[in-house]
Write a structure and sequence with these properties.
The chain is an alpha/beta fold and 351 residues long. The protein is built from 16 helices and 13 strands.
């Protein structure tokens, strides 16, 4: 079996790390990096820390408007797929790389396997929602991480090829979290004490493209009575510059993006996590750290139902109220499988 894997962004590197390791024991994998994330701390360092094989192709697409970026990816991927003629194309998540991989493959009659199928925010204004919905309707194998994802697919009439596998990010978390604690020096470098700081990630268009919303979130968090470590995404930094934002830091402490080990260590030791990232919501739950999501909806409704995640949007009062953590539950249900999702995926694809 010959598999062409398309990745391009941080969460996809994490997922591919565990799947590719097992896949290469029984199949030939052609790894394609679209270049969607190209900053060292969002790309290359993940390949090094997670021991991901060197990409067979690096398309170097870079950033850009959604249509232009996706179109460039499709054009480049089409050439690669024609050259390699794989048995299937494997895609992850909900990025423009995901959609480009799915479209390029099906137009060449190559079947698609979608890892993390079935997630829905039910907000069609999110580019990620469009990407994941389209990818699911194009895929032959829909590899769902949770029972909720399976139900979402059934509501759209998708039942053939659907498999409940668990979440490969949980596989990665279990495999790497101990190593991250041992190897990462980020806490000492930042002079932080475990449990005495908060963590923030903020990068989604709904928050960063709206100057009023972006200002409100940052100003609210800047007034907290605890340091908020903020590894700032290059896109968010550019928006701050564009909008003339970046007030004097009080609670907020902006730092450069960090690698996977450092990010996990920051998550594992945080008092609470503020984020608009789906992946960080999950990692917060896996780390048993309360999460305040700076959106009005989430794909990971299970974490909200378990009372380890609360939706606050960009409302200052909602953010402040959620910050007291009085709402956090006492139970910790298993939501993301048994840590063997990657193995199940390999078995399914092998037939």
């Amino acid at each position: 079996m010959k598999v062409l894997t398309v990745i391009g962004a941080r969460p996809q590197f994490v997922k591919a790390a565990v799947v590719s390791k097992l896949l290469r024991r029984s199949a030939t994998e052609i790894l394609v990096h679209t270049g969607q994330h190209y900053d060292f701390n969002l790309s290359e360092i993940f390949f090094k820390e997670l021991e991901i094989p060197e990409p067979d192709y690096n398309l170097g697409i870079g950033s850009g408007l959604h249509g232009a970026q996706t179109g460039k990816m499709m054009e480049a991927l089409e050439t690669v797929i024609i050259n390699e003629m794989p048995d299937l194309v494997l895609i992850y998540g909900d990025t423009n790389s995901t959609l480009a991989g799915a479209l390029a493959a099906v137009k060449l009659n190559i079947p698609v396997a979608h890892v993390e199928a079935g997630l829905r925010s039910f907000n069609r204004k999110m580019p990620e929602e469009i990407n994941r919905v389209m990818a699911d309707h194009l895929a032959t194998w829909l590899l769902a991480p949770t029972a909720t994802a399976v139900r979402n697919l059934a509501m759209e009439g998708i039942v053939a090829g659907v498999h409940l596998t668990g979440d490969v990010m949980y596989d990665a978390f279990l495999a790497v979290s101990k190593v991250a604690r041992e190897r990462s020096t980020v806490l000492s470098t930042l002079h932080q004490i475990p449990g005495k700081y908060s963590l923030l990630t903020l990068h989604r268009a709904e928050n960063t493209d709206d100057p009023k919303r972006l200002r409100t979130i940052l100003n609210t968090l800047n007034e907290l009575d605890q340091t908020v470590i903020f590894p700032i995404h290059p896109r968010t930094r550019e928006k701050l510059k564009q909008f003339g934002l970046g007030p004097a830091e009080k609670a907020l402490r902006m730092i450069e993006p960090v690698g996977y080990f450092d990010m996990l260590n920051l998550e594992l030791n945080a008092y609470r996590i503020f984020t608009d990232s789906g992946g960080v919501q999950k990692e917060a739950y896996m780390a048993k750290v309360p999460c305040i999501t700076l959106r009005e909806e989430t794909e990971w409704v299970e974490t909200v139902e378990a009372k380890w995640n609360r939706l606050a949007g960009a409302d200052p009062e909602a953010i402040k109220t959620a910050s007291d953590l009085s709402w956090v539950g006492s139970d910790y249900p298993s939501l993301f499988g048994d840590g063997h999702a990657a193995g199940k995926i390999i078995q399914i694809l092998a037939g």
